[in-house]
């Protein structure tokens, strides 16, 4: 099997690593340059979407901000999975919110803003405080505003109007501010014959709007709620592949924040902590193979490496730690790699995370120690 991935970043790289034992060959299409590259070495393999499509048995994607003309060409080839509708919904908060409503899953009250009049109507409909998000192009908390008081309306409107004017078809989605207790996500896979396997939920910690730490959690009641919502969304889309749902946990009741129609950063822990990792399961699904088991093998956390390209050698000596570099050039805040930390029980995981935190620069890894202590 030859799978073409739209996008040539770390997710395509980790899919290539996971596909090799199953003899699944991957190439990556860099949507920006039109180059076909090897997902591990970035070596140039060819150029042009038509060539890339021609060589592939299956086409999939590692991100959702893909021009619709590219998606439409892939769709016409009949090779694209999960579905171009799913990728479009992941890349446009208007479509995403409409999808969540169609699937009848709980999500924050919202209103779509195209004009100053809409903004006033949004304030009436949603109320303050609210979170405002650009509908296109947002990731890692970028393109967002928080409106807390009426006195800030005009200043925020100026910024939002500039954002709307900058990109064709741009709009803003106003959402009620959700006073959540924590954020969790569910990563799961749906196969070609409709079978669904989900991983245990992950509890996620964000630092400055970017995921810094994810820990697999066992919570039967929340897991059931999350799986029901996952199933509703996946079935609504007739989805094939790995899908992630991000949730707010508000006193034990889950609201969907957003979806990611792909393998997800909060599922990287599955490489060491689950029977089959999310990357392998995505490939199994899109290649029409049976899904692998998603059970938790052992308590596991994932620590994101942001803006750093080196770690102390001592981290390699800590047997609980498994380092995954992405081979990228260093830039401030950039996702450069992650460390999966495993242990036999939560108490031991907490101790291993503290041991890891002792070796790391506290400013570059602010969430590790504080959250490790909450685990035990
Ligand atoms: P990412 O790509 O990292 O998932 P994003 O840019 O797509 O981020 P969101 O996930 O929608 O954006 O929001 C980023 C973070 O902002 C959330 O993880 C959450 O902490 C906070 N947030 C978003 N929406 C709300 C809301 N309605 N109420 C309260 N907090 C929110
Ligand atoms: Mg998010």
TrEMBL record:
Keywords of the record: ATP-binding, Ligase, Nucleotide-binding, Purine biosynthesis
Catalytic reaction equation(s): 5-amino-1-(5-phospho-beta-D-ribosyl)imidazole + hydrogencarbonate + ATP = 5-carboxyamino-1-(5-phospho-D-ribosyl)imidazole + ADP + phosphate + 2 H(+)
Pathway: Purine metabolism; IMP biosynthesis via de novo pathway; 5-amino-1-(5-phospho-D-ribosyl)imidazole-4-carboxylate from 5-amino-1-(5-phospho-D-ribosyl)imidazole (N5-CAIR route): step 1/2
Coiled-coil ranges per UniProt: none
Chain positions recorded as ATP binding sites: 93, 133, 138-144, 175-178, 183, 206, 257-258
GO cellular component: cytosol
InterPro entries: ATP-grasp, ATP-grasp_carboxylate-amine, ATP_grasp_subdomain_1, PreATP-grasp_dom_sf, PurK, PurK_C, PurT/PurK_preATP-grasp, Rudment_hybrid_motif
A Pfam match: RS_preATP-grasp-like
MF GO annotations: 5-(carboxyamino)imidazole ribonucleotide synthase activity; ATP binding; metal ion binding; phosphoribosylaminoimidazole carboxylase activity
Top-tier EC class: ligase
EC number, UniProt record: 6.3.4.18
GO biological process, one term: 'de novo' IMP biosynthetic process
Domain spans labelled ATP-grasp: 97-287
Highest taxon listed in the record's lineage: Bacteria
NCBIfam families for the chain: PRK06019.1-5 (NF004679), purK (TIGR01161)
Family of this protein: Belongs to the PurK/PurT family.
Summary of subunit composition and partner proteins: Homodimer.
Its job: Catalyzes the ATP-dependent conversion of 5-aminoimidazole ribonucleotide (AIR) and HCO(3)- to N5-carboxyaminoimidazole ribonucleotide (N5-CAIR). Catalyzes the ATP-dependent conversion of 5-aminoimidazole ribonucleotide (AIR) and HCO(3)(-) to N5-carboxyaminoimidazole ribonucleotide (N5-CAIR).
UniProt-recorded name of the protein: N5-carboxyaminoimidazole ribonucleotide synthase
Underlying gene: purK
